Amino acid sequence: MAAVVLLATGPSAQASAELFNSFCAACHDDVAHPRGLVFNAAGNPTILTTVISLGMNAGGSHADHTSIAAYLDTIKASITNAPVTHNSPGTVISLRDIKVSGAMENAHLRIIGRIETVSPPAKGTVSYRVALGFTLPSSVVYTPFPGQSGVDTWTYKGVAQNGDPRLDTTVRTASVVIAAPVGAPNYTALWWVPTESGWGINLNHQGTIVFATLFTYDASGAPMWLVMPGGNLQADGTTFSGELFRTTGPAFNANPFTPITGANVTSVGTMSIAFAGADQATLGYTVNGVAVTKSIRRQVYGTRAANCVATTDSRASTANYQDLWWNANESGWGVNVTHQDNTLFATLFTYDAAGRGLWLVMPGGARQADGSFLGDLFRTTGPAFNSQPFTPIGAGNVANVGTMRLVFSDGNTGTLSYTYNGTTVSKAITRQVFSSPAPACS
């Protein structure tokens, strides 16, 4: 389930785009002239006005140029989390937001002479290659320091060749993601506090993103699930942070299940997970202004906790199905599968008849003779998410509501079938891929 973000274009942005199309786009169409050249003026109308005064065949007032420059600043190319190999000798990344014309017939219009760093990266070094001419963009070579991983950020600008600071480009921000070393932990697992049985958090880790589903209870003790679909790796290389959402949606047995939209998604706060190794972390989150902090660890119920995601297509006993699974046509619900030995611990997040969040759990899905996994399905109640201390739930908080079966066709597709208070549901499911897939279990 991915949160839906709706963006609207206001009248001023539309008017600015029309001004750009009127004065600039006919010529800067990547045929007559590079579109990238105009991004020099992103955020700085003085560059646009100056070039026009030098004889560029374009019109408009300074107010028009200010509006165009503001528009260019919203659409300019940028470097955001470009991938860099661990201990790379140097990764070349295009700089398409600063262009230097070297064509002789336009040499008199040249404004930018070089690119320089304003604030340097913390985890590596950068050097720039200024491309003179229309064919290639300028570029930056990013070289990480040995042993670094995670996000690194720096700022840079184009500097006027005549030394006039008014004609420098605005300061641009770039970021890269340095890959972790081979064999680094993957955090996909079920995490909990052993002394607080009754709630937990499933983490699905792919690349530099963690998708987290928190299973807990509201102030009335009713089941409540919250989701952080975009927990991005932070600069320290061990923390993932993102916005936290609560959703509503069609009842679990709706047929068809209509995918949720932005109208179903409410931002309730933020979440961060800071790892102190492969098996320990600190969870911090806020829900409508209420802050919670927990020390969490991987839940182990088999001989060991799986610390990665298997992508094997084999249905042999060595296949591992630990991951987030969903139906791509029914965005808004999913099932987290934790796989240890011959047992699946599955947590289903969906909605009740009123459209409120509902989560159900199969803690003991045992492998059957046909290769499927079958177990009892439960609904629980418990203390509010912010209870301090959080009292472990007892037998009185657990209701057996049916059964669940998971049948896997291969390592990436399967069928989920379950009954909830006498109502049967069957769904085709696939592993959810939202970033670069996690490495296979060894």
Written description of the protein model:
With 442 residues, the chain is mainly beta. The chain folds into 3 domains: 10-76, no CATH class; 77-181, Immunoglobulins (Immunoglobulin-like, Sandwich), CATH 2.60.40.10; 189-431, no CATH class. The protein contains 3 helices and 23 strands. The chain has helices at 11-25, 45-53, 62-75, and strands spanning 82-84, 91-95, 112-119, 124-129, 138-144, 150-160, 172-178, 189-192, 200-206, 209-217, 223-233, 239-247, 265-275, 280-287, 290-298, 323-326, 334-340, 343-351, 357-367, 373-380, 398-408, 413-420, 423-431. The strands form 4 sheets. Strands 8-9-10-11-12-13-14-15 form an 8-stranded antiparallel beta barrel. An 8-stranded antiparallel barrel has the order 16-17-18-19-20-21-22-23. A 4-stranded mixed beta sheet has the order 1-7-6-3, with no helix packed on it. The radius of gyration is 27 Å and the shape is elongated.
Give the arrangement of secondary structure elements.
Blueprint: H1 11-25, H2 45-53, H3 62-75, E1 82-84, E2 91-95, E3 112-119, E4 124-129, E5 138-144, E6 150-160, E7 172-178, E8 189-192, E9 200-206, E10 209-217, E11 223-233, E12 239-247, E13 265-275, E14 280-287, E15 290-298, E16 323-326, E17 334-340, E18 343-351, E19 357-367, E20 373-380, E21 398-408, E22 413-420, E23 423-431
Parallel strand pairs: 1-7
Antiparallel strand pairs: 2-5, 3-6, 4-5, 6-7, 8-9, 8-15, 9-10, 10-11, 11-12, 12-13, 13-14, 14-15, 16-17, 16-23, 17-18, 18-19, 19-20, 20-21, 21-22, 22-23
